[in-house]
Amino acid sequence: MFNFKLAAAALLITGVGIMNLSALEKNLAVNEVNTGGKKLVALTFDDGPDDKVFPQLVKVLAENKAKATFFVLGKQIKLFPGLVKKAHDAGNEIAIHTFSHPHMARLDEVSVTKEIDDVQKLVKGETGQEAKVFRAPYGEHSETVWKVLNAKKLPSILGATSVRDWEEGITPEKIKERAFKAKPGHIIICHSWSVNTLAALPEILKEFRDRGYETVTVSELLAAEAAEEKK
Ligand SMILES: [Zn+2]
Asked: What's the gap in Å between 134 CA and the centre of ligand 1?
């Protein structure tokens, strides 16, 4: 099994440019990017769309003129067509989280490919564009998963900050507290079905604004790193 702690440590030590093909070739999931101290963070929401919380997250983001990245599931797009298009049209990034949320490390190459292709087709159908980034369910990778991601040039995105909104007894207060630990360049993991995250979101966006942070999409964050590396 892929060792994320080790990969994260390697990134910290080497300070290697995390994005782009180098990360893929090294089979490294992206946790954060080097923005050169620029106060950018990327809020990400997994597992959507659903017809309850997801549309409200999109609404709150729009009301706050903020953007986020939604790692969506193909099976959910089939259940709730049209919602991904709305999120995309509001300026959010739509990214791949597989078709059916499987344990990817247990799948063979044909199945891994199908899990990605099937959701990519649905995303393209809704947004007119292919998704550019991927997040593995349960953070689970295998050599086969990396092989397929490399072939598709899809960076695998984890996150340096998780609000752990799936925990039992979680509250909006705890979620806010965890979100505010984010530093420049961090990718923050949330779930688009969490009513607690929805409740916390307006204050999270306000607080980041007050601290001088801009919330950007994952691709924008990766582009900020690429620009930083060219300096
Ligand atoms: Zn998930």
From this structure: 11
Domain of 58, CATH number, reads 3.20.20.370
Give me the domain span that covers residue 31. 4-230
Q: Domain tally for the chain?
A: 1
Give the Å distance between the CA of 184 and the centre of ligand 1.
24
Output the CA 230–ligand 1 centroid distance in Å. 34
Angle between helices 143-152 and 109-127 (to 10 degrees): 40
- Over residues 105-121, the pLDDT tens digits come to 999 999 999 999 999 99
Ligand 1 centroid from CA 97, angstroms? 7
From ligand 1's centre to the CA of 3, what distance in Å? Answer: 19
Residue 64: phi, psi to the nearest 5? Answer: -100, 10
pLDDT tens, residue by residue, 14-28: 333 444 567 888 888
